[in-house]
Write a structure and sequence with these properties.
It comes from Micrococcus lylae. This is Putative ABC iron siderophore transporter, fused permease and ATPase domains. The protein contains 23 helices and eight strands. By secondary structure, the chain is an alpha/beta fold. It folds into two domains: 230 residues, P-loop containing nucleotide triphosphate hydrolases (Rossmann fold), CATH 3.40.50.300; 210 residues, no CATH class. α9 packs antiparallel against α19, α9 runs antiparallel to α20 and α10 crosses α18.
Length: 622
């Protein structure tokens, strides 16, 4: 193998690796959210995968394989009639029934059977081998077999080129239209049929514009041209082709006529087109030029699609991020609401206040505070001997009040998230059929568990701070549980233990606990413990709210792919544009070096002088 051959092989392998990477990324692109234009983006992804599987990889794996010519066109344009005329007998069903072609028919020379019998091209379509004689009549299309392709060995076709009779591009059947487009995107060249009355229709020109974008070789068959109309119709058709970058496409004009005794177009009417195909099939250099040019054009188009899919995925990620921000904002507001309620004295009212006063007592105990912290120790013994209400009653009241605050904040947040998501197209779609404005059934118990865990945190703070000998003795006089309850009350009345009688009832209530705790632990320690208790509660509540609300909403917009995955997909585009030659290809820009390949090599002679006539069999039936 020469150095040039080694370089060519290495370049081909690099292109194949890039295409396989593009396929892997395209298949993984996540388009689950209903963003603007997502239906078109999903269709683009499917078309991209089909294009890679049906054409790009098969052609790169076998650049010397026969060319695949797809005969396409609008309903009634005479596709099947043309195929029958080119092979010299009826092989494809033509009738007044619309659409005629339902199951695609692939005709090939017998020597080329191995190229098409396996899944090399159109791997998603199962093969149905049709064995028939020339006199057997046309292959009957199987309307229920849209996922198959009928293979017919046809000696009349030259080796080196195969032909597919495709469904109508404007069929009333969605499946037909999709299959027709899939087949056209798997082609090395198009034989595009139209008529003098319908050549300006929008649908064919949309596809022809895509053909120009792919730099694919296109032969135009203009049929049913009335006598004398050619001089007006053909120049207008050529003008339209030129405007769309297809000025070099050969045009085969076939005027109106009747069928011969075999029910086919007379031989001379398609002789020029048949000769063009035969010479192209027999010229290996011309075939290679057509194949390589089409591959480069498709790779350039694939680069555009890769960019478009990367943009689509980035748009999806942006929509998912926006919905996730709504969840985060609502969670933060809920946590802040709980923090405010547990630090401004809101909880120290009603039942909590009553139970606390029962616990510490009123009257004599409160008057004792006025005598100063120095006499507090003397009061502790009397306090204990007086057998006040147990601290558990205060603890229960605190737990009930805190639980109500947390549940209410979480419920408000869930309703807010649902409302704001419904205002977004992507959010509204994922919420369809779901009621996420209500909290999950287990949330109440989770909240209770968080509160109990925090109460244990407070108890641990008291025990840790009271580990010293002198402190332990003072703590024993009051009780660990009582001190813990006092610390809870203190943390609910202030931030950082800074409280005073001026804060009203809540402050007046909490100052009792503050003085009790200071008599045991000292002022600095109490301030530190109150701050720590408050922080621990905030942390646990935020974790609870974040987990509950995130688990409820975020799985609906969860993304498996990252921004780096999207960037990796986008980075493939430049290599694809470089194509087989390693030189970036400009999509849809014909040049002097590529025009021959686009029009079929040196066989791209104008076929007008060879053209004769065509009559659509549907009209001839009348």
């Amino acid at each position: 193998m020469t150095n040039t051959s080694h370089r060519d092989a290495a370049a081909l392998e690099a292109v194949q690796e890039t295409v396989r990477a593009a396929r892997s990324h395209a298949d993984a692109v996540e388009l689950s959210l209903e963003t603007s234009g997502v239906a078109d983006q999903r269709a683009l992804r499917e078309r991209t995968l089909h294009q890679i599987d049906d054409y790009v990889l098969p052609r790169l794996d076998s650049l010397d394989a026969p060319l695949l010519a797809v005969v396409g066109g609008s309903t009634g344009a005479g596709k099947s009639t043309l195929v029958n005329a080119l092979v010299g007998h009826e092989v494809s069903r033509s009738s007044a029934l619309r659409p005629t072609t339902r199951q695609p028919l692939l005709l090939h020379h017998p020597d080329d059977e191995h190229w098409f019998s396996g899944p090399r091209v159109l791997p998603e379509l199962a093969r149905v081998r049709v064995h028939r004689s020339v006199s057997a009549g046309p292959v009957e299309p199987d309307g229920s077999a849209m996922d198959t392709v009928a293979l017919v060995a046809e000696p009349a076709l030259p080796a080196g080129i195969a032909m597919v009779d495709a469904p109508d591009i404007d069929s009333v059947s969605d499946d037909n239209r999709a299959l027709s487009r899939q087949l056209l995107e798997a082609a090395d060249l198009w034989i595009f049929t139209t008529t003098a009355h319908r050549y300006a229709d929008a649908v064919p020109w949309q596809l022809l514009g895509e053909a120009a974008a792919r730099d694919i070789t296109v032969a135009i068959v203009l049929g049913r041209v009335p006598d004398g109309a050619e001089q007006d119709v053909v120049p207008d058709l050529r003008r339209m082709l030129s405007e769309r970058g297809l000025a070099d496409s050969p045009v085969h004009v076939i005027p109106e006529t009747r069928f011969d005794e075999r029910g086919l177009l007379p031989e001379e009417h398609v002789a020029g087109l048949r000769r063009w195909l035969t010479e192209l099939a027999e010229d290996a250099a011309a075939r290679s030029a057509v194949a390589r040019r089409t591959v480069d054009g498709v790779l350039a188009q694939l680069a555009q699609r890769v960019d478009a899919l990367a943009d689509a995925e980035a748009e999806q990620q942006s929509a998912a991020d926006a919905l996730a921000r709504i969840v985060a904002e609502a969670t933060d507001r809920a946590a802040t609401k709980v923090e405010e309620a547990t630090s401004d004295g809101t909880l120290l009212r009603g039942e909590v206040l009553a139970r606390w006063q029962d616990f510490v007592g009123t009257g004599e105990f409160f008057r004792g505070l006025e005598s100063g912290i120095g006499r507090m120790r003397d009061r502790l013994a009397a306090f204990v001997r007086g057998r006040p209400a147990p601290p558990e009653q205060v603890e229960t009241a605190l737990e009930t009040g805190l639980h109500a605050v947390i549940v209410e904040a979480a419920a408000d947040a869930a309703e807010d998230i649902e409302r704001r998501w419904k205002a977004e197209p992507a959010g509204s779609a994922v919420l369809s059929g779901r009621n996420l404005g209500a909290l999950p059934s287990g949330f109440s118990e989770e909240a209770a568990g968080v509160i109990r865990a925090w109460q244990q945190d407070v108890l641990a703070l008291i025990q840790e701070e009271g580990a010293g000998r002198r402190t332990k003795a003072r703590l024993a006089a009051f009780g660990v549980n009582g001190a813990a309850v006092a610390l809870m009350v203190l943390s609910f009345a202030s931030t950082g233990g800074l409280v005073g009688l001026e804060v009203g009832i809540a402050g007046g209530t909490a100052v009792v606990g503050q003085k009790l705790l200071e008599s045991i632990f000292g002022e600095d320690a109490v301030r530190r413990m109150a701050k720590k208790a408050n922080d621990l509660l905030d942390m646990r509540v935020r974790r609870l709210l974040d987990g509950a609300l995130s688990d409820q909403f975020l799985p609906l917009v969860e993304r498996k792919r990252t921004a780096e995955d999207t960037a990796a997909l986008r980075r493939l585009a430049p290599s694809l544009r470089s194509g087989l030659s390693g030189t970036p290809t400009t999509v849809g820009a014909p040049g002097t070096d590529t025009d021959a390949a686009r029009s079929g090599g040196h066989h791209a002679q104008d076929l007008d002088d060879e053209a004769v006539s065509i009559v659509d069999p549907e009209e001839d039936h009348a």
